[in-house]
Amino acid sequence: MAIIKIHDIGYVRFRAPDLDQMEAFLTDFGLVRAGRETDRLYMRGTGDSPYCHVTEPGAPAFLGIGLRAASERDVERLARAEHVEVAAQDGPGGGSCVRLTDPGGFTIEVFAGGRKSKPLPAKPAAIVNTAQDKPRSGRLTVTQGPAEVKRLGHCVIECKDFRESEAWYKERFGFLSSDEIYMDGVEGLIGAFMRVDRGRQPVDHHTLVLLQMGRPGFGHAAFEVTDVNAVMAGHDHMKKAGHRHSWGIGRHILGSQIFDYWRDPWGNQLEHWTDGDMLPADAPAGRHPVNKLIETQWGPHLDLQHN
Ligand SMILES: [Fe+2]
């Protein structure tokens, strides 16, 4: 039994030497400034989270993630179990949080109780005519420009020892495995796509992915955009702005998202995604060979030399 069941991922936290450069990149990526203090940059999506990307000044690094607890009572329960103090949450929105260190040395903040932000106006998803169904009468107009990001959807964290990290996250936060990855036979698990447990309510196929890479590291952070037109228009916008493309556009096998990966100015990989699988808590876990990670339903295969 986990200490608490977290509800979602809230934000990723980085350090970078130039906050202006980070803000310019993230603006092209489709995020909006939520707050800018002398020593912090907070960026948000159009959803109700006060922020989903934080940058502190300094040498480039991935610092950790923020996980949203169901209630402040859960934050307090976690603090008691971990023998740590409840702290005030920084940044817009306020609230309280507990700061833990995962087996890889990253800071995992579990927060609750802050003010939700008023969602920003967002372009509606395009009504799509298919061969089977034609719900749209009249002409389609797809707007250009950055893909509007709604929210952070998941983060991939690389581990020295997958099994140690998996146990650490599951015991504290109630993560469930949606799909497990093996190498050298089905018993040799080296990673898992994990979702939050909200009972019968379907949730994203993965909120956290842990992968054994021999050392702790940052894989990528993935931000949900409105629809496939936003992925495509956002791709065009990022390309014209001269940003470094990494992988895509394609559709994943595990989780099914349509994806497009970019690199920020310091090489951190950020993903635009839309149309992912949703699963309730009782969906059984799949088990797959490692090549399923980089193969696609359609779109380019991952080129490890140039991504
Ligand atoms: Fe992803």
In the predicted model, the low-confidence regions spanning at least 5 consecutive residues are none
- Cofactors, ions, other ligands: fe (ii) ion
Specify the helix fraction band.
10-25%
The largest sheet has its strands arranged as: 19-10-11-13-9-14-17-16-15-20
The oligomeric status of these chains comes to single chain
Shape: globular
Helical segment count: 4
Could you say which structural class the secondary elements and strand pairing correspond to? alpha+beta
**How many DSSP E strands?**
20
Let me know the CATH homologous superfamily.
2,3-Dihydroxybiphenyl 1,2-Dioxygenase, domain 1
Q: What Rg, in angstroms, do the CA atoms define?
A: 19 Å
Q: Return the average pLDDT rounded to an integer.
A: 95
* CATH T-level fold name: 2,3-Dihydroxybiphenyl 1,2-Dioxygenase, domain 1
Description of the structure:
This protein has 307 residues and is of the alpha+beta class. It has a single domain (8-115, 147-298), classed as 2,3-Dihydroxybiphenyl 1,2-Dioxygenase, domain 1 (Roll), CATH 3.10.180. The protein has helices at 19-29, 72-82, 162-173, 228-240; strands spanning 8-16, 32-37, 40-44, 53-57, 61-68, 87-88, 96-101, 107-112, 149-159, 176-182, 189-195, 203-204, 208-212, 217-225, 244-252, 258-263, 269-274, 278-279, 286-289, 296-298. The strands form 3 sheets. A 10-stranded mixed sheet has the order 19-10-11-13-9-14-17-16-15-20, with helices on one face. Strands 2-3-4-1-5-8-7-6 form an 8-stranded mixed sheet, covered by helices on one side. The radius of gyration is 19 Å and the shape is globular.
